[in-house]
Each structure stands twice: as structure tokens, then as C-alpha cells.
Amino acid sequence: MRFNYLNLRAFGHFTDYEINFDPSKNFHLIYGLNEAGKSTALRSINHFLFGFPQQTLDAFLHGNTKLRIEGELQNTEGETVRYIRRKGKKNTIIDTNGNVLNESMIDGFLHGISDNHFTNMFALNHETLREGGESLLESGGNLGESLFSAASGISVLRKVFEDLEKKSADLYKKRGSTPELNKLLKEEKELRKEIAQYQLKVQDWKELERKYNNGKKEIESLIREVKILSSEREKLQRMKLTLPKIAKLRELRNKLLELGEVPALPDNIEELRKEMVQRLESAGKEKMKAEDEWEETKKELQEIAIPEGLLEQAALIDALYRELQSYQNNVKQAPMLEAERKLLEARVISFMKEIDSVHVRLDHIEKYRLRLAKKEKIRELCKDKPLLDQALETNEKERREIESDLKAKEEEYFSFPVPPNIEELENVIDIVKRAGDIEESLKLRIIDNNQTEQLLEEMVKQLPLWSGTYKELVEISVPVLAETIKKYEQGHTEILKNLEKTDEQFIIQTESISNYEEQIHHLEALTEIPSEEKLLSIRSHRDQGWKFIRTKLERGDLDEQAFNEFTNGKKIESVYENLVTDADAVADKMRSEAEKVGAKKKHLDDIKRCKDKIIELEQKKDELIKELADWQKSWDKLWESTSIKPLSPEEMREWVVKYGQIKGMFHGYEKEQKAIRELENKIAQYKQSLITVLASLVDVDQQKTLAELLQMAEKQQRKVNEDWNKRTRLDDSISGIKHRINNLSFRNKELYQKLENWKDQWLEAINGTNITDTTSVVVAEKIVHMYEECTKAYDELNGVEKKHNSILEQIAHYEERVHNLLKSTSLSYDGKAVDIVVSELNAKLGQAKEDKVRSKELSNHIKRLETAIREAVLEIDAAENYLNDLMMQAKCSSIEELEKVEVKFIGKKDYENRIRTLEEELIDIGGGLSLHEITKEVDQFDRDSIDVELEEINRKLSEIEPVRSELEQSHGVIKKEFEEKIQGNNTSSVLAEQKKESMHAKLADLTDQYIQIKLASTLLQKGIEYYRNQNQDPILKRASELFERLTLQSFSELIVDYNEKDQRVLMGVRDNGEKISIDGMSDGTIDQLYLSLRIASIEKYGNENEPIPFIVDDILVHFDDVRSKETLKILLELSKETQIIFFTHHSRLVEIMKELATQDQFQLTELNSKEAVNV
User: Fold this and answer.
1) pLDDT per residue over 452-466, tens digit each?
2) Is residue 334 within 8 Å of residue 804, measured between CB atoms?
3) Rounded to an integer, what distance in angstroms lies between the CA atom of residue 668 and that of residue 1081?
4) Pairing of strands 80-86, 1064-1069
5) Is residue 183 predicted with pLDDT exceeding 50?
6) Which residues of 628-656 are buried (b: 16+ CB within 10 A; e: fewer)?
7) In Å, how far are 1088, 1091, 1143, 1150 from 126, measured between CA atoms?
8) What pairing do the DSSP bridges indicate for beta strands 27-31 and 1163-1166?
9) Own/partner pairs for 132-138, CB < 8 Å, 24+ apart?
10) How far is residue 697 from each of residues 420, 461, 691, 714, measured CA to CA in Å?
11) Alpha carbon of 329 to those of 335, 343, 808, 840, 843: distances in Å?
């Protein structure tokens, strides 16, 4: 795949900026000065292929929605796709007509490469080059990591491995104590021990159960007694509240009977009566008020009078009044316009007299009106004449000055000596300069070599087991090989591991014994578990008693001493009977507790087995200690030839590495000494060459340094070159002056011809005017101006006359309309001015309009008042009718009688409401009894004895309460213990179990994390190793060739070797066969190694897949010219396989590329111009 072109339509500071990639070339060098847009163009490539990021820095000129990048891609089959990428969340790919394209079209050219993959593998700048070199250094040259990092462009592999290792170590470490998993496992073990301590013993159970049941019964008895007393107290308190309410209820019922029969009236009778009386009074007042107001309004309406015919002419009066100001202005303006007309007429005649005093009449004015083309032609010719005169004068003056200058230059040229030939001098200077600043290089080498010597001395001082010089050290022979040390180290490690395992097994067996003893103790915590040995012992003792009895029965004689010891003064039959009982009891116990007996026996067997194992471990440990002593003797003997008392294999392996480093550094030191001598000889040779070539030009001091001699030679070179340049410049200057003189002569002829042409045009232009051929151009311009002023004044005169006549007509028409208006009305204004008449008419019209509106308002008001009077009459009738209805219901004939009946009705309603309220209160406090049952219950109680009975009940309750409280408190403690332990666990046990479950969940989670991290590290390592196995040979072979070229043969090849950990690592090989590890290379060399691996990986990818363009951004900023040229040569070769786009802002690289390749091999594009420049 390749780019054919990119068009930054709207991106960054670019607008419609196109970069073409020549299809016949595959190496494109894009050069731009700082701020020319190189970085912007670089970003456009990624955005074009993979889309704009959500946040972009390139939308400062064009908004986010306007950003566009157009381009065309082409694959190896010749297929192309052209599209435009816009910024957005979806449908970001469109064609040139704005139609949305499918993203899969682009994926077909990229073959699944993502944005990150493209950036990491196919884009490289000086920063990522440096990071890649650092990653090689951090990995120690690990072969797999180096190949994978260079191929993928991922330069943080070592950091990933370190992060994974750190995370796993933070979770778990063998024999560690601080990692989370280690701490949790220790806590879980302690928690299991804690839970075992919370078990309840059987012998405490019966006493706890007895106390709990007795306390429970006593409390229940007290509660029953309290309930009975409380029920009796509540009943008495209810009667105490009920008695006064029953008495009040009976009183109210009697009063209700005393009222007798009362007519049924509305509940709000009083409110209705008052409302109707008020409405009757209010309606009467409203009626009287409306009648009085009607009389006054009628009188005011009759007093209004409007002049006849005035309102009919309202539109005309309004129009005349609006035009009054215009009329007044016209009256003032008419005399002023007449005066202005006279002034303009006099001015026109004055102009005509100045131009031509013969034809001074207004009817001849058209003779003074020149055509526009004629006027402009005269003006144009007036401007041209001074310019032609000035040009002739300037041309002639310049010609005289140049001829004088030519004479002076020719004199200087012929007096200048011919400079000497310095070709040999330039060759020597070029040779010396190509060698570079070798004096400074020599100085630095000497300083570096001295530092190397000091470092050697320092390293030897820090080397354990050695007190001699570094020269003596490199002379000794250390025959011990890395593999031998490794073998001894493995043997030593194996012995120590076995010792450690033995100690661990000893601790495990000891802890197992403790655990088994603890489990036996746990089994016997509730009841004693007899063992088989105990049963055998009791039975043996019993059988011995039986032997005594049988002997006595059979023979009659006994061993008195043994018999007395057995019976201990007791009767033999009692002793034997007790032993039989004990043996049977133990046997019965063993049968009932068979499972526990078996468990105890197993634990006892396990304890015996553990003790036997401990004896074996102690014997094995003694053997390992002896084996360790034998190993030490063999190890010491291995180093006898070096007179060194060796340390541990690990330390001696490090000692051998340091010894090798010192020896390698010493060889480098000697090689550098040889190079210093060669540089000194070369400097002397260059100095002699410079002195020889300078001797013919200047006196030379033989003691000067090479730099001083080179400076002197360059100074002479510049001087001679300046002389040649000066002579050449004089020659060029003389030729140029002669050419200018010829040009000025030709110009002179042209100017004289133009002057003749001007005269012909002048005569033609002034024909028909009062300008003659002798009139100067200045005067002619003034006459043309006067023609214009004359006709302009006449045109103004015509305009003023027309305006004056129009105003007079407007005044006459306005006055006529006013006189006609007065005739149509009954008004008379004899002798008054027209504007005063119009103002007065407008004022009277306004008053007439107001009177008309007022008249209409008064008429409407009269109608409203008449309506109000009718409504008041209806309101009075309605109120009187409603009051009559109320009196009929009350069976009375007057308002006063109605009020008396009203009082009795309200009293009846009050008694009924109060009776109803008392009945509801009695039912509420009656404890569910009906009103009849409550009355019946009250009649059974003696009112005077209620308080006495209540006092007695309260006394009994107050005596019971402290007893119950004390009993409940003491029982609460027993109950809490009983409820906790009856379930087999107390609160502490439950909490401990919950904590254990939580701990197990956390252990599972952390274990999963640890497994994931370890698995990730393993998979990454396997992936790297797989990549190494698949790609090591082809990539390493090509990278070795490239590395040799990039280091300018400082290294001859790359090889794979093994480090002290037996890991495959990359090493560089010098011409003399010396191997240099990555950490022994300079930063620049490591960068060149990374670049070699990167280019080799890209070549391999291109051979096996669709090639992808390689985007390079100024990777040579830290390379000198020679290495830059070699790198560009390699990239030029790579461009035969894939497209290379190389960005730079260093003009020196452009020069090197032009020296290195022809125009047919690469394309140069400059970003500092409007369009791409193709070379």
C-alpha cells in the first residue's frame, strides 16, 4: 500500500494544500523550516487513515465540523481508493461528491492494522528511536524482548514485566510476611484456633439450664399477677371518668323535654333571616341612588351643542392641519428661491464672458457644453505632457551618469592583478576537513583513556580478594568457567535447600503433634475418652485380683506382701468387685464413644508417626551438614591455582564477571592507546601537507597546531577566492553597464516618438474649443474646468426655477382648499390669515369630537341607570317573598315573632348536639360496651369506694415492680448466656465464623488476581519466545548486515550469546572478535542497533504481507554526516520494497540526499511554498 497524494483541504493552518507523491518514486523527502507545518502534515497521515481524535489541536483556523483531509491509497495490485476524511463520530469517510463510504473499503487496504499498530511499527521519530534504544538497554539485550520490541515498536516491555513482577510480589511471596495473601493466610490460621476456643463444656450445661427455667417460671408468675391488678385498675379508672358524664347526660335529656314542641326550621335560620332583611334594605337604597343620578345625567346631556357641518368635514380639516407646516415653509421659501435664481443667472453669464465674450446669451449655453470623452481626453493629454518631458530629461541624465561609471569600472578592472591558482591548496583543505576535528578527537580520546585507566584502577580496588594492580590482574589465569561455577552453585543451593526443607519438615511435624494433642484435648473437653491401653491396664489389674482369689480358694496360701499391696487393707472381694465394675464401665464407655475412641486412637498413632519422622529428619540433617562441609573443601580446592580464598559461588560468579569486565576494559584501553598514536601520526602528516601548500602564498610558523594551520589555509583560500570573485564581478558589472547604455539610447528614441504622437492628439482634442495649440496644458485644464462650472451653474439655475414655480402652485392650491371648506360650514373667518384659520378649525373639530364622545357616554349611562332601578325593584320583591315563607314555617306573622321561635329552635339544637357528644365520649371510654351496658355497669358501683380500691391496687403494683425488675435483670444475663450457648456458639463464635467467611472470599479474590498476573506474565513471555523462534534467524541476519553499515564497520556482526542467567542475549562483535554486550555500547550505537532491528523487521513484514508506508520524522538529528548518509542509503534501498516518507527541517539532510541519489531515485517536497515542489 502507498499514498498517491494528500490534500489538506481544511486542517491546521493549511487550506486546500496538496502534497503529491510521485508514483515513479518510492522515497519522498519532505522538507520544511520550523513552523512550516511539518508536524501538522505528519498528524494528517494518521488522521486520514484512522480518523480524527475526539480532541484535536488542528481546529484553530477551521472549526471541528469543517476539518477535511483528502487523499488516495493504492495497493500492490494497482487498485486505488480516493476519499475524504472528516471529523465526526460516524460516517467520517466520504467521496469527493459528499457521499458516505463504507469504512471496510479502507480496512481492505490496511489489512487490519490499527492506529496504535501503525504508529508503533511503521512510524519512527528521534524520540521513539531513543526510547527503543533505552528499552534494549533495560532488557540487557534479551534476544526475545529486543526482536519483539523492535518489530512491534513497543518500547516498554521491560517496564511491563517489572510491573507484573511487582504486582505479583505485592500479593504473595514464598516465606514472606508483608504481602496481602501471606498476611491473610496467617490471620486465617489464627482465626481457626480462636473458633475452637468458643465451644461449650457439657458439665456446665445442667446448672445453666436449671437457673434459666427457674427464673423464667418466677417471672411468668409475677407477670400474671400484674395483668390481673392492671385490669382491675383500668376498670375502676373507667368508672371514675364515666360517672360524671352519665349524670350530665341525664340532666341534658330533662332540659330537652322541658322545651316542648318546637317548629322544624332550617339549621341556619338566623343567618337566613338576617341575610334577607339586609338584602331588602340594600335594594331600597340602591333604587333611590340610581333615580337621583338619572336626573343629573339627563340634564348634562341636554347642555351639549356641536356646530353644524363641522364633523362632516373632519377628514379635510385633519388633512389641512397635517399640511399646515408644509404650507408655512413654502410661504417662507418662495422669496428666498427667487433671490437664489437671480444669483445663479448672473454667475452663468459671468462664466460665459470669461470663456467667450462674444456669445454671452443664455440661449447659446449648449455651445459651452463639451462632450465627456472630449473633456477626459484633454485632461489625459494634459497629464501625459509633463510626464513625457520629465522622462526625456531623466533618461538623458541617467545615460550621462552611466557612461561616467563605465569609464571608472574599466580603469579598475585593467589595474586588478590576476590571482594565483589554489587548486592544490583546496584539495589539502578538503582532505583535512573530511578528517574532522581530529585534534579535539585526540584530546578527548586521551581524556577518555585516562579516565578508563582511572576506572580500571578503581574497579581493581573494589574487586574483592585482590590487592595488586590491574596489569598484574590481567596476567593471572582464571581457569574456572561459568559452567563450573554454575555446577557448584547448583550443588550448594541443592544442599541448602535440602537443609531448609528438613528444617521445614521438622517444624511441620512438631506443629502436627501439637495439633493432634489439641484435637485429643478437644475430644475430651465434654467427657473423658478412654484409650485401649487404659482398658487393658484396668483389665490386667482385675485379672490379678482374680488370680489372688482363685489361688486362695485352690491352695489356701498367698504371697502376703503382694496381696496387701493389691488390697491396700481392704477386703479382696470389694476390691475385685470395684475392678470388675471399672473395667465394664470403661468397656461400655468405649462402646458408646466408639467413634471418638477411634479418633483418639488415630491421633495417638499420628503423634507416634510424627515423632518417628522427627528422628529420621534429625539423622538426615546431620548427613546434609557433613555433605555441606565436603562441598566447601572441594570448592576451596578449585581455586587453589589462583591463590584466592573463594567466597560463595554466587559471589564468585559476580567476581568472575567483574574480572572479565576489567580484562575487556584493559584490552579496550590498549586498543585506544594504539588509536591515539595513529591519530598523532595522521595530525603530523596533515600539518606537513598544509605547510607545504601555504609556503608559496604566505610565511608559515612550523609550531602552529593543525587547527591553526587549517584556519590560515582557509583564510588564504577565502582571500584568493574573493579576489577571483571581485575580478569576475567587475567584468559582469562592465557588461551590465554597456547593456544599460544601449537600453537608454533605445528608450530616448521611443520618448521622442511618443512626444510627436502627443502633439497630433492634442490638436485633435482642442478642436472646437477656445483652447489653441499654443495654450499651456495648465491653462487648458483651467479652461476645461470653467466649461464644466458654466454648464453646472446653468443646470442649477434651471433646477431653482422649477422648484420656485412648484412652491407657488402648492401655496395657491392649499389656500383654495381652505376657502372651499369655509363655504361648506356655518363658520366665518373674514380677514384672518389662512394658517390661523386652519389652526382654529382644527381646535373646534377636536372639541366637537370630545362632545360627541361625551354625549354617547351619557346616553349609555342613562340606560345603565334605568336597568339598575328595575333590578333593585326585583330584589326587593324577592327578599319580601323569602321572609314570608320563613314566617309561615315558624307559624308566626311578624319578624319579631320569628326571632322568638328562632331562639327556641337554636336551644333545642344545642341540647341535642351536647347529648350526642356525651354519648360518643361514653362509648369511647367504655371499653367496647354499648351505652346501655355502660349505664347498667355504672349503677352497680359505689362512687365513694372507687378511690380507696384504686389506691390499694397501685400499692400492690408498686411493691411487685422492683421485685420483677430485679428478677428480669438477673434472668436476662442467664438468658443471654443460655440462648447463645444452646446453639453451640456464642456471639464471639458467630462473629469469628463470619470473619472467616469474609476472609475466605478475600483470599479467593486475591488468589484469582495473583493467578491472572502470573498467567499474563507467562503468556507475554511465551509470546515473545514464540516470535523469537519464528523470526530470529532472518531478522537477526539482516539486522547484523545493517548494524555493521550503520556503525561504519565499528562492529562486524551481531551474535546471540548467553548471560550469567543462561538467557539468550544480543551482542555486538568487533573486528578483533571482541564481544560487546548492550550495556557496554554507547547511546548512539544502541540507537543504531534498534534502528537495524526495526528496518529488518519492516523488510520481513513487507516480504510476507502488503507493504505499509514507513513514516520517518527527523531520526538523524544526533547522527553525523557520514552515518546520516549511510542511513539514508539504507532507507533508499528499503524504498524499493515499500514507500518511505521522510520528514525533516534540516537543510543539510537535503544536501546529503542530493549528493547520495539522483533525481530519478527520490522526490523532494518543500512545505514552505503554496504548492508542493517536485524535483
Assistant:
1) 888 888 888 888 877
2) yes
3) 12
4) unpaired
5) yes
6) eeebeeebeebbeebebebeebeebbebb
7) 11, 11, 11, 17
8) parallel
9) 132/1087, 132/1090, 132/1091, 132/1094, 133/1083, 133/1086, 133/1087, 133/1089, 133/1090, 134/1086, 135/1090, 136/1066, 136/1078, 136/1086, 136/1089, 136/1090, 137/1078, 137/1079, 137/1086
10) 9, 57, 10, 12
11) 11, 22, 12, 19, 21
If you search the block for the grid coordinates 345625567, which residue do you land on? 297
Strands 123-125 and 68-74, by their bridges, are: unpaired
Q: Using alpha carbons, select from 978, 979, 995, 984 the residue that is nearest to residue 194.
A: 995
Of residues 1005, 1007, 1024, 1006, the one with CA closest to residue 161: 1024
Q: Picking from 172-186, 816-830, 977-991, 1142-1156, which range would have the lowest pLDDT averaged per residue?
A: 977-991
> Could you read off the pLDDT of 69-121 as tens digits, one per residue?
999 999 988 899 999 999 988 889 999 888 888 888 888 888 888 888 888 88
pLDDT at position 290 is: 85
pLDDT in tens, 723-749: 788 878 878 888 888 888 888 888 888
Helix, strand, coil share of the chain (percent; to 5): 75, 5, 20
Comparing 150-159, 1026-1035, 1054-1063, the range with the smallest average pLDDT is 150-159
- What pLDDT is stored for residue 39 in this prediction? 85
What cell was used for 515?
Answer: 495439633
Assigned C-alpha cell, 239: 368508672
Q: What is the mean pLDDT of the chain?
A: 79
DSSP 4-56: EEEEEEEETTEEEEEEE--TT-SEEEEE--TTSSHHHHHHHHHHHHH---SS-
Identify the pLDDT of residue 45. 92
H or E element at residue 583: helix 572-592
From the number of C-beta atoms within 10 Å of its C-beta (0-12, 13-18, 19+), residue 226 rates as middle
Closest CA to 1093 of 162, 156, 159, 141: 141
Helices 126-138 and 143-152 pack at an angle, to 10 degrees, of 160
Cell of 997: 467467611
Rounding to the nearest 10 degrees, give the CA dihedral for residues 111, 117, 118, 121: -110
* Cβ-based burial of 141 (10 A; exposed 0-12, middle 13-18, buried ≥19): buried
For 694-703, what is the mean pLDDT? Answer: 82
Instruction: Please name every residue paired with 27 in a beta bridge, in sequence order, or none if there are none.
Output: 1140
> Does residue 1131 contact residue 1091 with C-beta atoms inside 8 Å?
no
CA distances from 152 to 137, 245, 1134 (A): 17, 102, 18
- Please calculate the CA angle 414-417-422 and round it to the nearest 5 degrees: 140
Q: Which residue has the cell 516518507?
A: 1141
Q: Is 74 in a helix, a strand, or coil? A: strand
Distance of CA 637 to the CA centre of its chain: 66
Contact predicate 799/345, CB 8 Å: no
pLDDT tens across 967-1021, in order?
Answer: 776 777 677 666 666 655 455 656 676 777 777 777 777 777 777 776 776 666 6
Could you identify the residue written with the cell 556482526? Answer: 1053
DSSP one-letter code for 418: P
Element (H, E) at 276: helix 269-302
What pLDDT score was predicted for residue 584?
72
Q: What is the pLDDT of residue 202?
A: 42
Report pTM. Answer: 0.36
